[in-house]
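Researcher: Structure for this, please.
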Amino acid sequence: MSTNESELTDLEQEKINLDKTFRSLARIFIVAGAIGWFASASLLIERVKSLQNPTKDLACDISPFVACGPLFDRWQASLFGFPNAMLGVAGFIVPIVIGFAIFAGAKFNGWFWRGAVIGLGLAWFFVTWLFTQSVYNIGVLCPYCLVVWLATIPMWWSVLIVTMIQGFWGSRIRNLVSRRGISFIPASIILNYGVIAVLIMQEMGDRIISSF
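Model: Predicted structure, token format:
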């Protein structure tokens, strides 16, 4: 095989690997985005029900420490002057659309992916802040909020690591993560989930278990 043929084969293989990477990212965006959207919509519906009938038991009120009703009147639940769930209903549409666009053959430039990382990064920081408020300040876990957190985390870590591997943040960062590549994604997600689980059990475990 000549040098030109070898280089052409390498380029074709690189293109195939790139397509596989972004298709995997698209699947994560669609699945996690859909889960996050349904959880946000369900939470918003429960909020409306609580306004219509404040004395009615809500479907998400499982125990005194696992419930959404007690959170609705907290300022953290409407940080921008409206229910946070509205952000999820609007925001989770974006990764779903991006995911389907990738499957349809769309190719996005580096600036687009950097914007996606920043956007999902803000979402990740927001849900992490809500997590700390729920666990350490309020002492109540909202079931639908937990689902939103679980949906946001894999999208954030996946798009961050994929864009680093593809060199959208510079060759130095790409070389730093390229040795293990995609394997960083499940490791980061599992670690993030693990930290949340440990902190919840450490702070609220006994109260949650005793409330059932």
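Researcher: Any notable elements?
Model: The chain has one domain: 3-210. The radius of gyration is 20 Å.
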